[in-house]
Amino acid sequence: MSGSAAPVRPGGAVRVGLAGAGQWAAGMHAPLHSAGAETELVGVWSHTYARAAELAARHGVPAFERYEDLVAASEAIDFAVPPTVQADLAVTAARAGRALMLEKPLGASRQEAERLHDAAVEAGVPTLVALTRRYSDGLRDFLSSVAGRSGTTVVGGHYAHGGLLPGGFVGERERSGWRADGGVLLDLGPHLLDAVDAAAGPIVALRASDVAGEAVLLETEHADGARGQLVVSGRFAGDGSVFEIDLFGHDPRVHFSGSQMDPDAVWARIRAEFAAAVRQGTPATVDVTRGLHVQRLLDAAARSLASDGAYQEVPPCTS
User: Fold this and answer.
1) From the CB of residue 93, how many other CB atoms can be counted at a distance below 10 Å?
2) What is the rounded CA–CA span in Å between residue 283 and residue 115?
3) Cβ–Cβ < 8 Å for 26, 12
4) 111 phi, psi to nearest 5 deg
5) Residue whose C-alpha is closest to residue 134's, from 126, 125, 142, 146
6) Coil/strand/helix, residue 281
């Protein structure tokens, strides 16, 4: 496959190909590129061509039987596929010089995430990881307000919703996929770990324990000495979701509640940031290097779960 760039209209909408045709592709990713002037959906590919064709028809774009043909027709690829396949697909796109809009986690393992990261950095392509909560006004304002805060000694955090329960907003097909094995940690964990790491300083070690298959308890050690206790659960039998962070220490307690989030505003910001990254080289709020750090946090948690809750060190992401 040629690595030459697809046709580019200077200053125009970024031509985005969509890899995936499942629930998130249909409900979020495809509409994203049809809703604003910054990007333009130019085609859909999926391992299941019939699903790609159905989704593509809804948006008036072609469906591709071969992933390589989608890459050739696009300036950028938006991935709405499981982490078990995202890394390989994204490496192919990066080596062809395409910008990458990635889902979390980057891959099914730390090694896959590192391979994807290295390919993107070596190719010099723009990247954005759709950690949606980092693009919300509330969390952005909170992180700005605590930037440079010193003296935090204790951190608390909760992220819980009922999406993984039978009848929850995560569809049956998606619940029976990669989320069926470690879904609470891999699906919800990135959001809370990323936010806490940004708010209280880098997490350098953590341990994890499973709570009756309903939740994961995470205990964190931070570079400045703070200690944290976090809970994530996708089987919370309540209304809506809970996303909270507390910082305690020498300064007054700081509390953040981000349970309410405007998805339209979040996805509009993601679209705008991605286009700016492609057109102007402006770094995204969460790029592939930050995504790799989050994957290393998940890897440490998984290693801890496999070793009866022992603390695991988190290697620094210095790239």
Assistant:
1) 27
2) 20
3) no
4) -65, -40
5) 142
6) coil
Q: Where are the alpha helices (DSSP H) in the chain?
A: 23-24, 30-34, 49-59, 67-72, 83-95, 110-123, 137-146, 172-175, 183, 189-200, 263-280, 288-306
Dist CA 21 CA 29 (whole Å): 9
Q: Is 239 exposed, middle or buried (0-12, 13-18, 19+ CB in 10 A)?
A: exposed
Q: How far is CA 204 from CA 13, 193, 273, 313, in A?
A: 40, 12, 29, 6
Range in 19-33, 35-49, 231-245 the model is least confident about: 231-245
Q: How far apart, in Å, are the Cα atoms of 71 and each of 22, 102, 119, 319? A: 19, 15, 16, 26
Distance CA 177, CA 192 (A): 22
User: Tokens representing 284?
Assistant: 């995204």
Instruction: Read off the pTM.
Output: 0.91
Residue type, 62: P
Name the one residue in this structure whose structure tokens are 């910008």: 99
Taking the CA atoms of residue 134, residue 86, residue 305 and residue 174 in that order, the dihedral angle to the nearest 10 degrees is 80
**Side-chain-facing half-sphere of 94: CA atoms under 13 Å:** 25
- Mind listing the pLDDT tens digit for each residue in 120-136? 999 999 999 999 999 99
Give the C-alpha separation, 68 to 88, whole Å.
12
String of DSSP letters for 147-160:
TT---EEEEEEEEE
Alpha-carbon Rg for the chain in angstroms: 19
According to DSSP, the residues that pair with 101 across neighbouring strands are: 78, 128
pLDDT digits (tens, 9 = 90+) for 288-315: 999 999 999 999 999 999 999 899 999 8
